[in-house]
Structures are given as C-alpha cells and as structure tokens.
C-alpha cells in the first residue's frame, strides 16, 4: 500500500481529512486502568473502528449491518 506524503506547506481541510478516514478507515486501540492504592479496580480495553459502512462491508468486518443503520442485503 503506498504511503501518502504531505509536504509541510500543504494544508488539508477537516472535510478532506474526514473523507480520507471514512474512505480508508482508522483503528484506535487503547487500555485504561483505574486503580487506587496500587489496587486495580477497573480495566477497559478499547477498540474503535472509524470508517464508512460501505468500507466496512467491503472489508468484510464482522457484525450485523442492521445495527449500523443499514438495511441487510438480500442474496
């Protein structure tokens, strides 16, 4: 996959950035641990996929398409 290089003088608008993220997709992964006195009370593992529904379907992401607000395709 070719990397996109942006020159320092080139500015990208918020709309264009959002379009690129929705077209290509982005994944955000993180862990949160809440502890008191070195005792872990809560552990959260976060996995966030940001993409358009069309890109998710093309990529074959698991899940029910109706939960994303789309209609299920009939075969």
Strand-helix topology:
Elements lengths: L13 H11 L1 E11 L2 E12 L2 H7 L16
Antiparallel strand pairs: 1-2
Kindly describe this structure.
The model has no long low-confidence stretch (mean pLDDT 76). Helix content is 24%, strand content 31%. The chain contains 2 helices and 2 strands. The chain has a two-stranded antiparallel ribbon. By secondary structure, it is an alpha+beta fold.
Characteristics of this structure?
75 residues, alpha+beta, two-stranded antiparallel ribbon, 2 strands
Look at the helices and sheets and give the structural class: alpha+beta
Number of strands: 2
Mean pLDDT: 76
**Estimated share of beta-strand residues:** 25-35%
Give the fraction of residues assigned to helices: 10-25%
Biggest pleated sheet: 2 strands, antiparallel
Distance between the termini: 32 Å
Order of helices and strands: HEEH
Overall shape: flat
What low-confidence regions span 5 or more consecutive residues with pLDDT below 50? none
Q: What does the radius of gyration come to?
A: 18 Å
Largest sheet, order of strands side by side?
1-2
**Number of helical elements:** 2
Write a short abstract of this structure.
This protein is α+β, with helices and mostly antiparallel strands and 75 residues long. The protein contains 2 helices and 2 strands; from the N terminus they run H-E-E-H.
């Amino acid at each position: 996959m070719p990397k996109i290089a942006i020159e320092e003088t080139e500015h990208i608008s918020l709309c264009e950035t959002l379009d690129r993220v929705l077209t290509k997709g982005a994944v955000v992964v993180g862990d949160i641990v809440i502890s008191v006195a070195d005792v872990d009370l809560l552990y959260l593992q976060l996995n966030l996929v940001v993409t358009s529904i069309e890109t998710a379907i093309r990529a074959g992401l698991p899940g029910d398409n109706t939960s994303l607000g789309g209609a299920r395709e009939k075969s």
